[in-house]
Amino acid sequence: VWSGNGTCCLSVPSGENINICWSPDGQTIAVGNKDDVVTFIDAKTHRSKAEEQFKFEVNEISWNNDNNMFFLTNGNGCINILSYPELKPIQSINAHPSNCICIKFDPMGKYFATGSADALVSLWDVDELVCVRCFSRLDWPVRTLSFSHDGKMLASASEDHFIDIAEVETGEKLWEVQCESPTFTVAWHPKRPLLAFACDDKDGKYDSSREAGTVKLFGLP
Asked: Where in the numbering of this chain does the Anaphase-promoting complex subunit 4-like WD40 domain appear (predicted)?
């Protein structure tokens, strides 16, 4: 964690870290590493509040919007749900037939979405914990998801050379953003219909093996 003046004020030695998220109330940071250990850090004291070792491959992690449940996607295609702050198992949902990679909650608190190695995006009702629809326009494992600020659109991306933008309530395709390479991450603007995304671009003009490191924007009317 970095302070306002650009200096590092918190370093957590917990193996090779691969995912991180803030709690909705801003009080806690969760960090997951390659050994499938998730560490919960108090953002004020900079100390570990809890540490959980899981017996399955942990992928993306996230709190729900109400800050009372903690979600993990795993390598068995499941969504594991823990109570928070007790971290007691509540439910394990068989969400996909293969590796469940990513998870995102919509800003309205109505849905969450998961992306899987089966190339499907599934949309779930937060209260009922049931799948309400699937999006199946991608052909490669879904790496990244993002809901628009109003919860009406869902962007999903993979190694396909396009980003799918769907209408959440119907599942219909609204736009297809063309890319020249796989997309690693997508993120909607917090207040506008503006999508930022980063791809596995190469600087082919000078060195085809050199990563370009560009961030691109796609604006909607």
From this structure: 139-189
pLDDT digits (tens, 9 = 90+) for 114-160: 999 999 999 999 999 999 999 999 999 999 999 999 999 999 999 99
Residue 176: in which H helix or E strand, if any? strand 173-178
The span from the CA of 38 to the CA of 20, in Å, is 9
Contact 156, 163 (CB under 8 A): yes
Q: Both ends of the chain: CA-CA distance in Å?
A: 36
Query: Taking 60 as the threshold, does the pLDDT of residue 13 lie above it?
Result: no
Put simply, whether the predicted model's pTM sits higher than 0.85 gets the answer yes
Cβ density class 39-65: b for 16+ within 10 Å, e for less:
bbbeeeeeeebeebeeeeebbbbbbbb
φ, ψ dihedrals at 87, nearest 5° = 60, 40
CA distance 97 to 49: 34
